[in-house]
Amino acid sequence: MLTLPLYLGLGGNEGDRRANLLSAIDLISEFLCLKPSAVSDFIETKSWGFDGPDFINCVVKYDLPEAGQDHVLHALALMHAFQGIEDRIGRKRDYIKEGPGRTYTDRPIDIDILLYGEDTINLPELTVPHPLMKQRDFVMVPLSQIR
Q1: Phi, psi (degrees; rounded to nearest 5) at 78
Q2: Alpha-carbon distance 20 to 14, whole Å?
Q3: Alpha carbons 75 and 55: distance in angstroms, whole number
Q4: Per the omega criterion (within 30 degrees of 0), is the bond before 129 cis?
Q5: CATH architecture of 3-146
Q6: Does residue 62 sit in helix, strand or coil?
Q7: Rounded CA separation 113/95 (Å)
Q8: What's the CA gap between 132 and 140, in Å, rounded?
């Protein structure tokens, strides 16, 4: 069976950070009906883009069955599902997300689609590969462990 690798960056700096990451991985796995094929170490890092408590971050890989789906539509559906998981874990979205006034803030969980197979997606709401991942050691270090 052909598979499509999906790499997700997870992080959080509010509440029980480790438990939030584990809960997110469980909820994502339940949604996808798949276990992760790889999970990086959990690493502690300074907040990025604002002054706040330290984060715990990891990268998780899933090997999705390649079913001939429209990859852009599928990636968008995944993004919306992951935002629902973030909300379920307690993420609030009361900050500016895009544009020159982009502001970062504390959050119990953040789930980013880093890579989706070899696809490139450039939409206002989703860019893959993640446009800032190469600037972020908290993404690149765990990603290098499992890629």
Answers
A1: -60, -45
A2: 9
A3: 26
A4: yes
A5: 2-Layer Sandwich (3.30)
A6: strand
A7: 20
A8: 10
Using a 10 angstrom Cβ sphere, with 0-12 exposed, 13-18 middle and 19 or more buried, the burial of residue 97 is exposed
Token readout for 80 is: 């919306």
Residue with tokens 């992760």: 36
Beta bridge partners of 74: none
The Cβ of residue 140 has, within 10 Å, a number of other Cβ atoms equal to: 16
Tokens 């276990």 correspond to what residue? 35
Q: Which two tokens stand for residue 77?
A: 């559906």
Per-residue pLDDT of the chain (147 residues; tens, 9 = 90+): 688 899 999 999 999 999 999 999 999 999 999 999 999 999 999 887 778 899 999 999 999 988 777 788 888 999 999 999 999 999 887 654 444 555 678 889 999 999 998 888 888 888 889 888 888 888 889 999 998
CB neighbour list of residue 87: distance below 8 Å, 6 or more residues apart: 93
Under 8 Å between Cβ of 140 and 42: no
Structure tokens at 113: 């689609």
Neighbours of 67 (CB within 10 A): 9
pTM for the whole structure: 0.90
